[in-house]
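Lab notebook: predicted structure, single chain.

Context: the supervisor wants predicted structures on file for every construct in the current expression panel, including those that have not yet been purified. This is the next one on the list. No modifications to the sequence; it matches the entry in the shared construct table.
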Amino acid sequence: MLSDLQGYNQLKDQSAVRALIPRILYYNEMLEIFGLRDHQVEDTTSRRQHLPISIPMLIRKALLLVVVGLIFIVSVLINLPIIVVARSYSRKKAKGISKGTALDLCI
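Prediction complete. Output recorded below exactly as produced.
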């Protein structure tokens, strides 16, 4: 009995195996994009018997997206006053510096 590596080394030059490699790489890339493991793919098929597994997974990922979005919005709102104060302070300092020199800044 050959191990997987020995079997691959013997068969890697066949055209069927070479044609399969890009498809496997694409499959792995899609798994990474969707955040799934290989063993979860069968559980997400559209067959009726798998709906009890697929729907909670979809709801969980949608709720995670909503929570991350809310955290983003809250963090922007919390930091907005600091951004406004820093920008106005920077403009005041830039105007003060440019008055003493011949250099005109576009502010």
